[in-house]
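Incident review: delayed structure delivery

Summary: a single-chain prediction request sat in the queue longer than the usual turnaround. Root cause was a stuck worker, restarted by the on-call engineer. No data loss occurred. The affected request and its eventual output are reproduced below so the record is complete for anyone auditing the incident later.

Affected input:
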Amino acid sequence: MKAQCFFALLHAAVTCALWPAPVEIESGELEYAVWLDKVLVVEYVCDNKLLYREESTVRWHSALTEPVLHLVQYISNNAPFMGLANKSESLTEYDVVRRAVHRAISAVRESRFVPWKLHSRRTSFEPQSQSAQRRYLSRLRIQQCNCSPKDDLDTKSFFSSDESYTLSIKEGTADIDATSSLGILHALESFKQLFHAHTDGIEQYVLNAPLIIRDRPKWAHRGLSLDIARNPFTPQDAIRTINGMATVKMNRLHIHATDSQSWPIEVPALPALALKGAYRPDLIWTTTDMEQVQQYGIERGVSVFIEIDMPGHTASVAHAYPELVAAFNELDWSNFAAEPPSGQLKLNSAKVNNFVDTLMHDLLPRQARFTSLYHAGGDEVNLQAYLLDETVKSNDSKVLQPLLQSFMTRIIDHAVENGLQPIVWEEMVLDWNLTLPSTWAQQAELDTLVQVWRSSKRIEEVLKRGYRAIFGDFEHWYLDCGFGGFLDPYPSGKSPTGVPFNSSGGQKSKLKPPYLDYCNPHHNWRHMYLYNPLVNVSDDLHHQVIGGECLMWSEQTDSVDLDTKLWPRAAAAAEVLWSGVRKESMIEDASRRLGEWRERVVLDYGIRASPVAMTWCLMEGGCNL
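Output delivered after worker restart:
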């Protein structure tokens, strides 16, 4: 029996190229093509009660010429907030499911993805468009249990719900069964990937029916981190990224919202932060921008949460509040920061405490409407900077540790008071030995999560201290690596006066050809696909690993090249997060499935993903060595 199931999975993986790979696919003995009917009846049953029944019909699609279709899709991609609930309007799980169903059916009907690249040239790979014995898919039945879909959506329960689902297609009907609304969203993403457009430009079909998919994720936290502070990004970039994430069932978008270089987000209680700290006034994300991005994420099963990294990485605060920042923009920046400009919040200042309180009181209640997470930062705190902090005047870690403990406890208290689970970078635990679990809340879902980035070996160190961990180290899952450094050597080859600090200069440039970055080489999708975060973790600690993130730092990335650097590599990470640790023997099959995913998102979502493989390799079944 096991062998038969294994064969069914392998066979279906070739014909049903889903990404990420589901837990189980069964394909029936009588395989046939199913065409999407021009009238599709949709039924949504929740707790055995029919919530709605409607007919989805082809009204305008087949009558439009291809250029007009392209225009419609362009407008959709560039007007991302159309159709969202108003800011004051409450959102229910019923709304989320119904809108997702409408989007899924529209996506299938409007798809332009013809999989010609996946078949040898001049072969007939499509089912006949005209046949007297054609089978049609005319009904979509969705059944959900344990739900209250017409109550206001609670983000905490929504994003922590059971994500499993079953999807079957047989006898003219597609059935989706799930415990939660989130499971339905995932099933609909798989439903969309089963369909191909026919070259006639009018109809869509599924191959190898009947089939059954049973699926569930390996890890709960399946994330992508996007730095919007070092180079400018727009809310539309985040929207496009969310669209890509939803297709691969990623569910956490971590926005690294501020850094030393700029403060691009509006804080109404502290308006000078963005007005003076952003690169330009037109590059500020307003509170409305952020809320619309977060709601857009909710409707696609993606929790969008932000990070205000503190006390390091805060030089941009000095543009508005110079009295709060130590070692701001020092000429010898490398002595006081990981990268320019230097500057971080003072550690023993009543004014800084008041600033943090004001910021948290403004920011966190707004965040709590849309997410259950808040990232408090805490990485790369520079000891030397506190020699220039008149409230401390010391770089002794024994002096700084209790001050840092008080500072981070203050922020985490604010997060917990607002019902947000705090996240910190690993240094807070491993380098500074801070005590950060939110045990005073007596709720496990509010315990501090620790994000590990420097080495996979450090995951177990974090777990042994009793914390739960998020993985994604720079040697495997940093998406900015391998593009070269962003720093230049001194024009004269030697440092100017003042570098090193308060010296006469004359130090040789540290940069040498070929000017590689610290985390080279480039992490290609295969490298990311084979990342095993558990390799150094004992079995008894695996339950404390809640998931991971791949990360895009933006020193050399902006809106123009974001898509090509994110995708398809982030999709490779997504399969690890959904399906579990991958093996080298899976790469060939992954190339085909990921190649199909790439073609689909380029054509149907306007995502400028890089190619997975040479077209000839996709057409001829792979290129092996």
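Verification: The domain at 2-215 is CATH 3.30.379.10 (Chitobiase; domain 2).
Action items: add queue-age alerting; document worker restart procedure.
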